[in-house]
């Protein structure tokens, strides 16, 4: 699924992936999944035949969209097949491009442990909340040390990193909706716009301002 404009979230049992307009999501066969669309989003869906799925990664992911991949996706979903075999050839281009595209997964894994799930549920409900892991532990009845260990063993990242990715997910949604960088920073829990810009650039690979500029360019 490709959000030609706007932002799209894909959720499986492994967690949630967010794709802004410069990325495309891939969900392999066998994964129950759901999608959520944010703002004025133009989503394109391309189904990959089962016999071609082996050429792509075997797990849900998000990929960078090259200019060629973008045009192939738009052509596949914008027009009717005027000549026999056109769709098949375009789809082969899409698969070839996805096979070599770098993974850029804004992946937020979700826990199985009940104590850790209680903590992540609290953070999902209020991602901008300024709270320490020790404070969250007291709320859910687990020690800070136990929760810290669970973040690393179950989710593969620290509490701070997980919360940062969660906040980036929300920041992408706010920026897609046209919120300012300053308002987005305040809503998502950063103390100032500079902190948001630094975190966003490190995770997404571009500044919030550049991201919004590309959204405006795509909408033209």
UniProtKB/TrEMBL annotation:
It holds the Pfam family HTH_18. It comes from the Bacteria. Residues 117-214 form the HTH araC/xylS-type domain. Keywords: DNA-binding, Repressor, Transcription, Transcription regulation. Transmembrane segments: none annotated. GO terms for molecular function: DNA-binding transcription factor activity; sequence-specific DNA binding. SMART domains: HTH_ARAC. This is HTH-type transcriptional regulator RipA. It comes from Nonomuraea glycinis.
